[in-house]
Amino acid sequence: MEAWHTAVELPGNFLWTLVKSREAVMRHSASRVDISGADVSKTDANHLLCKGVEASTSQGTQSQHTQGARRSIELPLQSLVSHLPNGRYFACEDVLFTTIATSLETATSGQLVVYRVGQQCPMQFTADALALGVAGILAEQILPCPLPQCIVGDIDLALAEIVSSQLERPDRKLLTIGVTGSAGKTTTALMIASVLRAANVRTAYQTDLGECDGIVQSTQESPLATAASLVVWLGEAVDSECGAAVVELEQAALTYGHYDSIELDLLVITGPAESADHFGPTSLQCALERLAPDAVVITPADDPRIERVVREAGVRMVTYGTHHAADVTAKIIDQSGGMSTLLVTSDETTVAMETPLCGGAMAACHCAAVTVGLLIDQPLTSTIEVLSKVRQLPGRLQSIANDGHPTVYIDVAGTSKRVASALRTARSISEGKLCCVLSLTGAESREELAEYGRLAEKFAGQVVLTCHPSAKSEFLQLAHCVLDGVKTCAAFRWVADWNQAIDWTVGQAKPSDTVLVVGGVRRASAQQQRRELAKIQEWVDRAIQARTADELTVQPNLKIFG
Predict the structure, then answer these.
(1) 3-class SS of residue 122
(2) pLDDT of 246-286, one tens digit each?
(3) pLDDT at 489 over 70
(4) Strands 149-151 and 136-139, sheet pairing
């Protein structure tokens, strides 16, 4: 089979050659089934079952298959040592098992059963395990029973390592791109996916706005996949004959080691450096540890702290920036009429770009995606053309413009850095006053709420504090925390009802003003985020319709006689 070969020379004598053999992909996809019309979660479960692992996520989700269906399949015995060579084995030198049961309720004879500390009485667990005749136990502590046991430091990470071994390292069968940072991960990941697809590379992506395995696009109802579930998703991408996978990496999951079962060919860093609020390595340092030996890091030159950490790691690096000199730069030369004009420069080539995604943060996301395009040997002009077609992203300064009415932007934010970016961008493109509807979820810390107040007072001409419906009971407490960062408290208006806050703000704003609805969106899953964004958009549309109706109402002229 021919190999997929891409070579790109960048300014500064960067030469990156990626060779990915397609033999493994074709061999792996020999038994591939068409899932274009199938349920994604069911496909994942069948895929894992055929590989000898009971379908489960890293959180221990139980399989939906019946015990009778499992008994009807004669599965070969597997060696646990071959999957977990670093585990500590007791009462045996190896454990031979058929599949893995995440709980005793689904366990049968010959399976390896998982014991999670604190979820069940160890004495009762061992008694039931002996009665069922399981092959062995995977646990984080030794149990008082004669059954073979494998002791690991973390169950979820061990399950991910097992699945990765059984699927023959799917992350090594395609170009695996990770996107991490304090802000702009989702936007950058989706832009990178667009660039790769335009280069005729079938691409899978996973972001907190949605995912795609190369064939089926969906908005998942669960959080971003990590550990074992991420490996399963990569296996599905390989089955779909994808050449690349773009993964949004959560910072908390990085520090907990939930990506230790994969390696990255390319790491893209977005946003400013995170503040170190804990001991131990930062999420960026953890991400750098997941790089393959020939990996490349795309890092922002605008933040010397990030660049210093990457240089200390001793990895190959390409820089991008909007304010400082870099291998690829994007300069904002005009921002008016809801459009932003950029000059993107690489080496001695400069191309103008127009996009409705305004602001410095969006320019940085564009610049990072352009850098990826150059690395896969795409001309700068064609990459710019692809990115210019990305008109809007849900909840990322999503614009709702109506002639004769104020322009409304919706941004999910979620952190003080994202709030600052949204406010700064809205302030720079507003022709009149910036009116900010700042919504709180109740999950913010006191320090973060005070920072929200400081930022809102700095950038917005008018601020309306509100909250998510689930946080109404604690709205007064949250609002007082916001005022801790405010100098002129009387300038802030409090409206506990989110819908009424939007309705009042849009109703009193002038046509030249800009209304920014920021924060308040729960982001536990892509499905939940999309539903809440649709609700906000519906409220904004109703407020504009009400404003239009008021303007059309003819006021009677009173004439006084006498």
Answers:
(1) helix
(2) 999 999 999 999 999 999 999 999 998 877 666 788 999 99
(3) yes
(4) parallel
261-263-264-269 Cα dihedral, nearest 10 degrees: 50
**Cα of 482 vs its chain's centroid, Å:** 27
Taking the C-alpha atoms of residue 466 and residue 464, their distance in angstroms, rounded to an integer, is: 6
Task: Please give the structure tokens belonging to residue 17.
Answer: 């050659």
The SS3 assignment for 193 reads helix
Over residues 369-426, the pLDDT tens digits come to 999 999 999 999 999 999 999 999 999 999 987 778 899 999 999 889 899 999 999 9
Instruction: Count other C-beta atoms under 10 Å from residue 486's C-beta.
Output: 19
> Rounded distance, CA 78 to CA 266, Å?
33
Looking at residue 274, what is its pLDDT? 78
70-79: average pLDDT: 66
Q: Is 93 helix (H, G, I), strand (E, B) or coil?
A: coil
Nearest to 275 by CA among 286, 284, 263: 284
Per the CB < 8 A criterion, the answer to whether 176 and 165 are in contact is no
The stretch 543-559 carries a mean pLDDT of 71
Higher-pLDDT residue of 31 and 324 is 324
Note whether 308 and 299 are within 8 A (CB): no
The answer for residues whose C-beta is within 8 angstroms of residue 346's C-beta and 6 or more apart is 10, 11, 327, 328, 329, 370, 374, 380
Task: Report CA 519 to chain centroid distance, whole Å.
Answer: 17
3-class DSSP assignment, residue 417 = helix
Structure tokens at 408: 């409304």
Q: Report DSSP state, residue 478.
A: H
Tokens linked to 527: 């499905």
The answer to whether 24 touches 36, Cβ cutoff 8 Å, is no
The alpha-helical segments, DSSP class H, found in 348-415 are 360-375, 380-388
The token duo for 261 is 């079962």
With contact defined as beta carbons under 8 Å apart, do 193 and 206 qualify? no
Question: How many other CB atoms are there within 10 angstroms of residue 481's CB atom?
Answer: 20
Q: What count of Cα atoms within 13 Å lies in the side-chain half-sphere of residue 49?
A: 18
Average pLDDT of 301-327?
94
Each residue of 519-553: b (16+ CB within 10 Å) or e?
bbbbbebbebbbebbeebbebbeebbeebeeeeee
The kind and range of the H/E element at 450 are: helix 446-459
138-141-144-145 Cα dihedral, nearest 10 degrees = 10
Asked whether the predicted pLDDT for residue 210 surpasses 60, the reply is yes
- Phi-psi sector, 413: left (phi>0), alpha (psi -120 to 50), beta: left
Listed residue (427, 491, 529, 501) closest to 186, CA to CA? 529
HEC sequence for 247-294: EECCHHHHHCCCCCCCCEEEEEEECCCCCCCCCCCCHHHHHHCCEEEE
Q: How far apart are CA 120 and CA 127, in angstroms?
A: 12
Residue located via tokens 């979660």? 41
Number of other CB atoms surrounding residue 350 within 10 Å: 12
